[in-house]
Amino acid sequence: MALIVFIYSCDIINPEEEIPSFIEFSGFDLIVRGGEGSNSHQITEGWIYVDNELIGAFSPNKPFPVLASGESEIVVDPGIHTNGISVATELYPFYTRFTTTVNLVEGETTIIRPQFEYRENLTFVFVQDFTDTHIFTDDLDNNTNTEMTTTLDGAFEGPSGIISLDQDNPVSAVGTAFNYELPNTSLGAVLMEINYKTDARLNIGIIGFNDFGTPEVFPPTHGLNIKEEWNKVYIDFSEALNSSGYPSHQIYFSATIPEDVDNANILFDNIKLIHFDQ
User: Fold this and answer.
1) Which domains does the chain have, with CATH numbers?
2) pLDDT digits (tens, 9 = 90+) for 212-243
3) What is the pTM of this model?
4) Which of 58, 66, 200, 219 has the fewest CB atoms within 10 Å, counting from its CB?
């Protein structure tokens, strides 16, 4: 009898450990429809649910354990770094979630590649790919030498936008050719996607216009540091628009050449201004 009690006690103290299954993201894809522009994205993590249980946020090519096996429902939400800040991952509100069913096997790794789309209840204010022309034609610094033009040299996808600076023309400020009526309440997030690489710090901001067309240039709301390779960021204008109160706005870019270089180029591509339908 004592032996039986001893064995039973050992089972309680050292219960049999569950063998986890593993999941790995091989990457993420963005599927676009007509009018939505490039499928370029910067989804850095997938927030994954297994059978309605949140497991966590994980990057591609890093297997992670889950205590589940057999046929399981997988739901993945796309995670990004808003405003280019990598401290914390946020869910991108304009992409759909990905859902699939897989057969998880204990001790084995199941590889999935989530595919996301833009939600249907979105307004694309503009999609600027620089294929023919571009909308950033308002020369705010009155210097034609620092206007935005287009180039194929070092371009991201086809022609890209470019601003060139030198020590004789050290500053550039350009805005959209049009004013846009954008949501200015917390109910509608307004974000701009942009691919860029730059030899100078790039500032991004808004210009508000009252009912009489009088402008007010607000200080830059966001700044992007020098990037030697192409990068993509998601810029959130919601807070700036909430505090502005103006009925319409322009978007502007500004930059100043660093003192220690002779020339600096700033390249742009796939600029999308998006908000939820109102």
Assistant:
1) 2-117 (2.60.40), 122-276 (2.60.120.200)
2) 999 999 999 999 999 999 999 999 999 999 99
3) 0.89
4) 219
